[in-house]
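User: Can you predict the 3D structure for this chain?
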Amino acid sequence: MTAHIRTLIGVVLISVIAINCSSKKTDGDKQSEKFKSGLVFDIGGRGDKSFNDAAFRGVEMAKEKFGIGYEYIEPGEGADREAALRQLSSQSDIAVIIGAGFIFTDDITAVAKEFPNKKYVCIDYSVDTSKPIPENLAAITFREEEGSFLVGALAAMVSKTGVIGFVGGMDSPLIRKFQKGYENGAKYVRPDIKVLTGYAGLTGEGFKNPAKGKELALSQYNQNADVIYHASGITGLGVFEAAREKGRLVIGVDMNQENEAKLPDGRTLVLTSMVKVVDEVVLNEIANVKNGTFKGGHKALGLAEKGVDYIYNDVNRYLISDSVRTAVEELRRKIVQGEIKPM
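Assistant: Here is the predicted structure, written as structure tokens:
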């Protein structure tokens, strides 16, 4: 074989290899299974037994179900949040980065534009209709007011004193949705109900102050409230502590928090929890990246989409009579059908 022919054969083989390799990873192809997800926690971090733990459960579920590993970074302040997103984005083996919390909105939007080949998910994204959402960013919101309406109605129906309470973390438009839905649900079924409200702070620190949560809850219980709903992250652990001290009812948030106010006999003081399926959303978005079906843009989830709900199970069943359960389920139907507007 002449040197000229050997050279031609070599060129052809290199070309074939190049074509085959380039065909394995194009924009429309299925994402390689050998990638990881990245998660940056909201204020309060892992172990809040609420919003952050729900997001963490999502990446754990993706590992259990698909074998997709993950890395996570605890929350920082200001530029630390953006730096954490950039750190994960710069790693070649991380294909999807999740920011857990509305405080991430501006930072994750900016980073998504800078890294167009990565996928991003922001839980509780603060949507501004005047600003476009990057195509590689899934902006997830929940209709918290719908689930809060149901637990507000439930609280009002079981209250013996006619006084119920609400403890929020950071005083913000998002947490005001929880409060407003809760108040409207309570007053829908019991117009004369009194709703006490309190917030732990005006900044993100309001989500990680259990001492303040306990102080606010004790104040409301001392004003005759017999049910308190919290939407306050790790601050809510103080609310549960107050409930245990007073022997009064409390409503959890984001995850099923029935174990946070258990009695010695195994029963719970947690009337219910208004849950958001943050874990399922994180799992589904990671799966979409894996399957090549990821789509950016705004995605809103409420009762109809099973994005929010309230807990009713064998643990808290003794606190909720059949007639109350039936009434709350009728309110669910009316909200889904558009007959009731929670806000």
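The mean pLDDT is 89. The domain at 36-142+278-301 is CATH 3.40.50.2300 (Rossmann fold).
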